[in-house]
Amino acid sequence: MIAPVVTRAGAATHTGLRRSLNEDALLAQAPLFLVADGMGGHQAGDVASGTVISGFAALAGRQELTVDDVSFALARARAAVDAIDGTGTSKAGTTLSGVVIAAVDGVGYWLAMNIGDSRTYRLSGSVLEQISVDHSVVQELIDAGELRAADATKDRRRNIITRAIGAGSTGEADYWMIPARVGDRILICSDGLSSEVDDDEIHRVLAAHEDPQTAADRLIDLALEHGGRDNVTAVVVDAIHVSSRPGGAGGNGTDDDIDSDTRPRAEAMGGMR
Known about the structure:
This protein is α+β, with helices and mostly antiparallel strands. It has helices at about 45-55, 65-80, 135-145, 190-195, 200-210, 210-225, 255-260, 265-270, and strands at about 5-15, 25-30, 30-35, 95, 95-105, 105-115, 120-125, 125-130, 160, 165, 175-180, 185-190, 230-245, 250, 265.
């Protein structure tokens, strides 16, 4: 039986130019395409991100997943991260963003999820949209009309997140069910990419390179060319066949080093939700 969404994918990650440890982790194996960004400056950020990705990897190889599959895996991942040993008051933590392949009445869907400020985008036709919503202080300020989106990348609070897996957070993930279409291109990335490369540049790269691996590699290169201040990860996923009805018929259906890294709101502002 054919999967509800048949994909091809490319993935790349880099430590960046200012760090000695890559705390990002990724999974790019159908039906899961995920990026986790462990929190630097905390105990075992790399262990936290790796723990979450390893937990979800147990679901790889299935034709499709449900919201329950994902929420149960996320609950197990949260418990595993909370159990990571450490000393002091800081706790290991990580973001998580991405898509899994799902179906509704035999029709192929992207099930997107997000917790933290790693991002998921979709390029459909000529339109690039950010599917995920950042769980961050600057996003809250933008939503409240207190900060212009154009100023967000330069704001000193840009790396303070309001939800995470671990790090003392109990904030829940957001989920979206999105009908998949042949030709969809999904990008999942850590903030090491989105903080260095603007959406217009991301759009140009995704539109210019047919091969998803080439696109992922080029995005990493751009982040490094623009400073590479953080770990940077990109997963690019293309929908090459989408089931449109039951039975599987196809459809088209320094201080800078600290400031540039993800930090939970609890550390920087005294309270995480």
